[in-house]
Amino acid sequence: MNQGEKRRYLIEYLLGEQKRMQRVEIPVDAQGQRNLSILMLGSSFV
């Protein structure tokens, strides 16, 4: 599993855990995916 696949797996997992974010579209670019995963990780502790 390469870095992009790991990042996408993490985002999909977090989207499944956070019902309020299920309508969020996963960006196709790596930087957008990084930004989204950081945002989601930060909000998962709130």
Short description:
The protein has 46 residues and is mainly alpha-helical.
Q: Can you tell me about this structure?
A:
By secondary structure, the chain is mainly alpha-helical. It has one domain (3-43). Helix content is 63%, strand content 0%. It contains 2 helices and no strands. Helix 1 (3-17) packs parallel to helix 2. The longest helix has 15 residues, at 3-17.
Tally of strands: 0
Q: Helical segment tally? A: 2
Mean pLDDT over the residues: 86
Strand content: under 5%
Largest sheet: none
Task: Compute the separation of the termini in Å.
Answer: 30 Å
Layout of SSEs?
Blueprint: H1 3-17, H2 30-43
Helix pairs in contact: 1-2
Please describe the structure with a list of short key phrases separated by commas or semicolons.
2 helices; 46 residues; 63% helix
